[in-house]
Task: inverse folding
């Protein structure tokens, strides 16, 4: 059954999606960076627009000129100069983390400046009213204008890139900036590309805000979900992106006319409201390869190159461990009000440790830990509701997440860099929309703590025990044969295979372990709050977590624990937005300090013990000494990266 | 061609690999017997490395079989169709043309990884931190390999900071630590100085004397002559000549290729 009226409504939705997708693709085509921060950039511009019109009462035209003509391109220029230009040699993973950092930073800024409030009175640039079509159908002017904008951008960009000298130079810069810089003004072209991309984000944001609510998280997520369209177009074809976006929009509204048996209605509703998420997920599963150069090293750019990882426990690493245990035990002596806030720390720390396992140890960028954390919480609550003793459910629930992690991790293992990141993010988004947002699943959950653990002191102690357990499990992934095999796998997959390591199985195994750990963290989070709160496990939240862990050092479990404590402390101690802002700044700077804070501390530790250690050369034979000298010379020759 | 029912080593039969319209390896038969060094020589683009990858499993052959006969009294293992790590566990070890080391590990740890993973251990027991039953054996093998290659003094040095020649030795050590039946080396002498080449030749001769089946893909004529028992000349995907290195290098075809080329 096809309804023309519904199709026209769908066209409106599709148009808006096409606008975002075309903006995303255009940015990619002119900068070479798949800009995950496109959504937050759009949101930021939309908020500035709201401020100009609703608070400063500027005329609409002036405000539009200010936002789209100055603010949006300005943001792009600033980001290019201070974030992306210094990172131009750091590969796909480094850029991915940087874009993620920009996203978190911009969200933090929105929270800080506007308190994260959502507004329904975002000013609309589009004319009201609609055209009457035969058959008592109407087509809003707004849709027509949007269609024209989309077509204009697509045609203009295609012409610019294919047929002009500037387009050729832009393509050269995108392809190999270093090489191109010898022939063309690469920096200026790249800056122009970013200004243009940022301008498109501004257009998308300003046009979107009046249609959806102006809300930092949901609007960012909505834009992120249109990435499915970009993936379908394999990040190359603008026409495919436009057609796909329109088709999905129309499909979405056509589905509202489907009325199956009552018990399935919820599912159909979930489908038609979340078709874009599904398309993102399906596209990532189906499209074999993106038209994209991806970094060869899994998780490269996050680790310090050739980072020395001893398998022995040295005294230096024991010191912070002791101090950390003391600090973590302190809340046990807090008064109830302060203790309440501290309850979030161990729970979040377990989730962070799971990120270290997936990304730091296995080299699998995982933006989907929020999904697994939420599933762990959900399973625990369901089991507790079914009569399983609470303490047992607390561990059994997360254990049930492990097979799901295995299942979803399997397609992910063939992917790397950006593609892997998108796949894990899509998984979290699907879970969030189809499970956490469905009353069928999250209604009537039993999440209250049983007798004995209603007292926060006892519960906090239990949380600490869980964290300790997690750290102990993680230890065997870090040291011993398994730790060595994982480092080997990260350093060179081909060599790891030649040594007999079953790289695929190992990756999926570790990924599934990480999912289980995240589930435990989620179960603890929900138990601490005694309520299943879907916003705790929002996919965008997962992005913030990833950035936070990256900043503290993606291969440092202790760093993850400290990071969780710091995040909660900043959130409790300051206004909302500060923590995101700090994490964002950290992630943006990460390209210059590979390995994050964890590696910096380790470096400081290495430096501190150096005078104590005997010089290596004294223990060597004459031949060995020659080799060591040559090695030292080589190390000196290498540029500091 | 040496052979018979009691053959030990790697046996390649009818191997073929096509890339689009180009046949990189065309119906190649080759034996790599235990206790000898077999060299595969030929000009650039002859298909040597493709053949090498088809044996290790890094590339999938379109046709033909690769078998490994580890013990005289046991049936041969069919390697074709197995993934690379399974071939490694079955007893084939190899090194890379472009050095691939674990830069984040020490020299000893690099070698240890080779020894540790030759048999698949349940991942769960590793996660739970259960003691490895092979721990003592792994230590012994690692120590022996370090000793044999003269790397003991460098055991605790980070592998990423070594000079090229030493890196090649560490790579060889990692391959040997798995106690393989067959050892495949892709241009092991490139980047080594004369002294190191002599040393490598000695090591390879000694390994062959211990019963290892060694296949060498190499350009260096002097090195091949010094170390190989038998050489195969590969041109455009086909094995055109075989014999002792001296015979092969003395042939008109080899002269044309090598002298004409350089």
Result:
């Amino acid at each position: 059954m096809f309804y023309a009226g519904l199709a026209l409504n769908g066209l409106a939705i599709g148009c808006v999606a096409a606008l975002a997708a075309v903006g995303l693709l255009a940015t990619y085509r002119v900068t070479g960076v798949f800009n995950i921060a496109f959504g937050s950039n759009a949101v930021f511009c939309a908020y500035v627009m709201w401020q100009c019109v609703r608070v400063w009462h500027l005329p609409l035209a002036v405000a539009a000129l200010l936002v789209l003509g100055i603010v949006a391109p300005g943001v792009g220029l600033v980001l290019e100069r201070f974030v992306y230009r210094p990172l131009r040699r750091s590969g796909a993973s480094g850029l991915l983390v940087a874009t993620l950092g920009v996203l978190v930073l911009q969200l933090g800024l929105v929270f800080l400046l506007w308190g994260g409030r959502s507004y329904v009175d975002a000013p609309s640039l589009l004319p009201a009213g609609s055209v009457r079509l035969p058959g008592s159908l109407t087509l809003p002017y707004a849709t027509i204008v949007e269609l024209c904008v989309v077509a204009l951008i697509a045609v203009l960009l295609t012409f610019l890139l294919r047929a002009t000298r500037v387009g050729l130079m832009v393509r050269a810069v995108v392809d190999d900036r270093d090489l191109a810089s010898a022939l063309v003004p690469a920096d200026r072209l790249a800056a122009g590309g970013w200004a243009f991309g940022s301008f498109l984000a501004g257009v998308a944001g300003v046009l979107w805000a009046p249609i959806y609510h102006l809300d930092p998280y949901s609007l960012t997520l909505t834009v992120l979900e249109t990435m499915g369209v970009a993936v379908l177009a394999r990040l190359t074809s603008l026409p495919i992106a436009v057609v796909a976006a329109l088709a999905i929009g129309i499909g979405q509204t056509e589905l509202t006319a489907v009325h199956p048996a009552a018990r399935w209605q919820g599912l159909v509703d979930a489908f038609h409201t979340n078709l874009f998420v599904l398309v993102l997920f399906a596209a990532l599963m189906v499209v074999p390869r993106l038209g994209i150069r991806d970094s060869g090293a899994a998780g490269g750019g996050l680790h310090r190159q050739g980072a020395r990882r001893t398998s022995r426990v040295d005294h230096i690493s024991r010191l912070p461990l002791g101090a950390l245990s003391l600090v973590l035990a302190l809340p046990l002596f807090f008064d109830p009000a302060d203790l309440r806030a501290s309850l979030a720390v161990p729970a979040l720390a377990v989730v962070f440790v799971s990120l270290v396992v997936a990304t730091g140890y296995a080299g699998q960028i995982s933006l989907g830990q929020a999904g697994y954390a939420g599933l762990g919480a959900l399973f625990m609550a369901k089991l507790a509701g079914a009569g399983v003793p609470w303490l047992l459910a607390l561990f059994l629930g997360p254990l049930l997440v492990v097979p799901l992690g295995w299942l979803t991790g399997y397609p992910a293992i063939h992917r790397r860099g950006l593609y892997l990141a998108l796949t894990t993010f899509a998984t979290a988004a699907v879970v969030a929309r189809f499970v956490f947002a469905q009353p069928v699943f999250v209604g009537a959950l039993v999440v209250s703590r049983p007798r004995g653990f209603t007292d926060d002191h006892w519960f906090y102690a239990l949380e600490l025990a869980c964290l300790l357990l997690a750290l102990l499990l993680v230890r065997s992934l870090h040291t011993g044969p398994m730790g060595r095999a994982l480092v080997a796998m990260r350093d060179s997959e081909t060599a790891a295979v030649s040594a007999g390591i079953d790289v695929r199985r190992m990756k999926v195994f570790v990924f599934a372990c990480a999912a289980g750990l995240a589930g435990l963290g989620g179960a603890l989070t929900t138990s601490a709050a005694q309520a299943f709160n879907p916003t705790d496990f929002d996919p965008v939240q997962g992005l913030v977590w990833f950035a936070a862990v990256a900043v503290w050092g993606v291969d440092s479990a202790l760093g993850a624990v400290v990071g969780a404590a710091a995040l909660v402390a900043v959130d409790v101690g300051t206004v909302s937005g500060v923590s995101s802002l700090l994490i964002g700044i950290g992630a943006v700077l990460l390209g210059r300090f590979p390995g994050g804070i964890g590696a910096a501390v380790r470096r400081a530790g290495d430096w501190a013990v150096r005078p104590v250690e005997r010089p290596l050369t004294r223990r060597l034979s004459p031949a060995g000494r020659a080799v060591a000298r040559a090695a030292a010379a080589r190390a000196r020759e290498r540029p500091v990266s | 061609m040496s052979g018979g029912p009691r053959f030990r080593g790697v046996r390649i039969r009818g191997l073929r690999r096509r890339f689009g319209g180009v046949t990189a390896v065309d119906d190649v038969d080759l034996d790599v017997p235990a206790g000898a060094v077999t060299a595969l020589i030929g000009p650039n683009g002859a298909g040597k490395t493709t053949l090498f990858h088809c044996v290790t499993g890094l590339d999938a052959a379109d046709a033909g079989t690769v078998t490994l006969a580890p013990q005289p009294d046991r049936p041969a293992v069919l390697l074709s169709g197995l993934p690379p790590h399974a071939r490694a566990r079955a007893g084939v070890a190899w090194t890379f043309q472009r050095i691939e080391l674990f830069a984040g590990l020490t020299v000893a740890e690099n070698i240890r990884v080779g020894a540790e993973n030759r048999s698949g251990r349940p991942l769960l027991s590793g996660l739970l931190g259960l003691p490895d039953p092979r721990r003592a054996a792994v230590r012994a093998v690692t120590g022996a390999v370090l000793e044999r290659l003269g790397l003991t003094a460098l055991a605790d040095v980070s592998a990423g900071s070594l000079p090229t020649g030493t890196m090649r030795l560490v790579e060889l050590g990692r391959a040997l630590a798995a106690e393989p039946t067959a050892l495949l080396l892709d241009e092991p002498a490139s980047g080594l100085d004369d002294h190191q080449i002599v040393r490598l030749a000695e090591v390879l001769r000694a390994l062959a004397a211990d019963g290892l089946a060694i296949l060498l893909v190499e350009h260096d004529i002097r090195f091949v002559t010094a170390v190989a028992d038998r050489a195969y000349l590969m041109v455009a995907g086909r094995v055109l000549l075989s014999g002792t290195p001296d015979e092969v290098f003395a042939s008109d075809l080899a002269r044309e290729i090598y002298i004409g080329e350089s």
Observations:
- The beta strands of chain B are 9-19, 22-33, 36-41, 63-69, 77-78, 92-94, 182-186, 213-217, 230-235, 238-243.
- The domain at 9-103+180-261 of chain B is CATH 3.40.50.300 (Rossmann fold).
